[in-house]
Design a protein that fits this description.
Blueprint: H1 5-23, E1 27-37, E2 42-51, H2 53-70, H3 78-84, H4 91-109, H5 116-138, H6 146-167, H7 184-193, H8 199-216, H9 225-239
Antiparallel strand pairs: 1-2
Length: 240
């Protein structure tokens, strides 16, 4: 799923900053032993480029932090990112790291890092929400035709929250200690604890979960058509 424009620009700016820091890492010449003649006792030295170790470690750590944030967990680049923490401080390794950052920045700028699975899920979710909207608009006021729309919208919300659990780093488990999938309210609470949203948003999500549960359990008098319409509109904005 494509990043919001402001967040994308913030990541691009951070990548630019880390790239500049990589290009500024000091590289100096050192004389190292090239050979030693045991007969003449003569030592010959050869020049070697050496990257400043403390500065390199700081830069390497910054690389891992930003790359972990912008590259999806399912990306083929994750293996390279995982190996970044053990990247040596030879000049060619430094250049590799800088070039890799530049390539990732271009992919991010052109939206090539989007999680394809998430994009597919988003398309499906939008289709289901459209179906829920049609169920509601084609129904008859005074009847219970709005009930299926509430159930469908609630199912979309639950799937979106489970997907969010998977996308977090580290991931958030969407199953309980008994191995069963967490219920909708438990998912809401788990993601709130992770700081995905605040209590105000969590209250709204719980309200929608309440409508879905009432619809699923046949308690049709606990909600009305207008509440289902607001639920559909709200969930559509939330998953967007």
């Amino acid at each position: 799923m494509a990043l919001p424009p402001q967040l994308k620009q913030r990541y691009l700016a951070r990548l630019d900053e880390v790239i500049r820091k990589g290009e500024d890492v000091p590289v100096r010449d050192e004389q190292q032993v090239g050979s030693y003649n045991y007969i003449t006792k003569e030592t010959r030295y050869r020049p070697k480029k050496v990257v400043d170790w403390p500065t390199f470690v700081e830069w390497r750590t910054a690389c891992v932090t930003i790359l972990d944030q912008v590259v999806p967990q399912q990306s083929a680049h994750r293996a390279t990112i995982d190996a970044f923490s053990s990247l040596g401080n030879a000049p060619d390794k430094l250049q590799f790291g800088i070039s890799f950052l530049k390539a990732i920045r271009e992919d991010l700028k052109d939206d090539h890092l989007n999680d394809v699975a998430s994009e597919i899920e988003a398309e499906i979710a939008a289709d289901y929400m459209g179906q829920a909207e049609r169920l509601l608009s084609e129904g008859s006021t005074g009847q219970y035709d709005h009930v299926p729309a509430a159930v469908l919208a609630g199912a979309v919300l639950e799937k979106a929250l489970r997907t969010k659990c998977r996308q977090l780093s580290p991931t958030e488990s969407s199953t309980g200690s008994d191995g069963r999938p967490l219920r909708l309210n438990s998912l809401i609470d788990a993601l709130k604890k992770r700081g995905v949203y605040n209590e105000l948003v969590a209250k709204q999500l719980r309200a929608w979960a309440g409508i879905r549960n009432s619809a699923a359990h046949g308690n049709f008098d606990e909600f009305n058509r207008e509440q289902v319409q607001a639920m559909i509109d709200g969930i559509s904005r939330f998953i967007a």
